[in-house]
Amino acid sequence: MKKPTIKDIAARAGVSTACVSMILNRKNLSRFSEETIANVYRASQEYGYTPRSQQFHKNPKKLILIICPSVMNPYYATLIQGMEQEAWIRGYMTLIFTTYWDTKAESEALKLAEEPFIAGVIFAMFPQQPAQAEEIGRRIPMTTVGDRNLSIQIDTVDVNNYEAGRMVAMHLISLGHKHIAYISTTLTADHSSRVNRCRGLQDEYQNSCPGGSVTIFSEDVSSEKERNVVDVEQKVGYSLAQRCLKEAPQTTAIVAINDMVAYGVRQALIDMGKKIPDDISLCGFDNIYPSRFHGIELTTVEHAIVERGRGSVRLLAEKLNGQTDAWTPQAITRLEYQSRLIAGSTTGIAREPSPTPAERPDPPAAPADNGEIPTGTDRN
């Protein structure tokens, strides 16, 4: 069978050979539409074509280990697909190890990373045990995708979740929302993106809406529950939304930690007879693909999920391409993608909020019962 050439790819994709060369070698991608890029990738995959510049003759190992906390949330599924798109083009296979945020499982994954058949490792989240990851990363090429963190000594592909939180706060403040709520699954230092989104919201409200408030509702989710309850994020969103409306009735907007939790919040609001956004506005984060479905159209924050997945493989491949018999880590590379607010149909002008307990006027004192009947009162 004839070996495929760049001309074959160009003909199949309906573009020029120069276009194919630039796209497959990741040059000047901003010049091309997403559809054109996808068509070139698809054509190259159909032909099994790998550019000469991306063929690694020095490294016979072709398996990349992806350590991921979940595959149920479309955020992680989309991120992994972006990784696999780039890995395929570069001649690598992938192996996915799901931890469900269990530190013991993460340790087992890192042990697997040192097996001789593993070429490199990508964390689909910020490692829960960064010191252990860094120690192994000194011997094995490693990349992590997640929240902006300048302290970890591993190549990173990230977004600034603090700024993403500020972005949502500014959007809600512009719509007149004074009292909002933040709803999250486990909110601890192990989940820096959740914490930083919350801090961004709080700081922006403190600076730009000093009379406002951000009320936090969170629920700890064990790794066992993550593993065994498929719709755990929606369930958390549902239950916390009920708590929110009961305990903080002044809330006019709810910000969920991610789109999946927001879906649970949305269902709870509908079941309680609330109209979105007339009665209460709703925001999420990540802009996963179901958030654009008709009828949902969630206000959320775009985090370039596919591109960050591809970027993590590119960073890893650069390490692997220069790899010698003894792995020697070089300078740490940090690749940051800019977040972008997507204003959907779930946010609108704030309604008149219910007063907070502190704002409620004291009830009038009851008249003394001296046996006289006040004017306009009927004791019968």
The count of helical stretches stands at 12
Shape: globular
What strand order characterises the main sheet? 2-1-3-4-5-11
Instruction: Assign the CATH class of the largest domain.
Output: Alpha Beta
Instruction: Give the averaged pLDDT, no decimals.
Output: 86
CATH superfamily of the largest domain: Response regulator
Could you characterize the architecture of this molecule?
- By secondary structure, the chain is an alpha/beta fold.
- The chain folds into three domains: 1-55, Orthogonal Bundle (434 Repressor (Amino-terminal Domain)), CATH 1.10.260; 58-159 and 304-338, Response regulator (Rossmann fold, 3-Layer(aba) Sandwich); 161-303, Rossmann fold.
- Helix content is 39%, strand content 16%.
- The protein has twelve helices and twelve strands.
- The strands form three sheets. A six-stranded parallel sheet has the order 2-1-3-4-5-11. A four-stranded parallel sheet has the order 7-6-8-9, with helices on both faces. Strands 10-12 form a two-stranded antiparallel sheet.
- Strand 6 (179-185), helix 8 and strand 7 form a beta-alpha-beta unit.
- The longest helix is centred in the middle third of the chain and has 17 residues, at 192-208.
- It is globular and about 70 Å long.
- The model is unreliable at 55-60, 323-327 and 366-380 (pLDDT under 50).
Question: Could you give the topology of this structure?
Answer:
Blueprint: H1 6-13, H2 17-24, H3 34-47, E1 63-68, H4 74-89, E2 93-98, H5 103-113, E3 118-123, H6 130-137, E4 142-147, E5 155-159, H7 161-174, E6 179-185, H8 192-208, E7 213-219, H9 223-228, H10 232-247, E8 253-256, H11 259-271, E9 281-283, E10 300-302, H12 305-321, E11 334-336, E12 340-342
Parallel strand pairs: 1-2, 1-3, 3-4, 4-5, 5-11, 6-7, 6-8, 8-9
Antiparallel strand pairs: 10-12
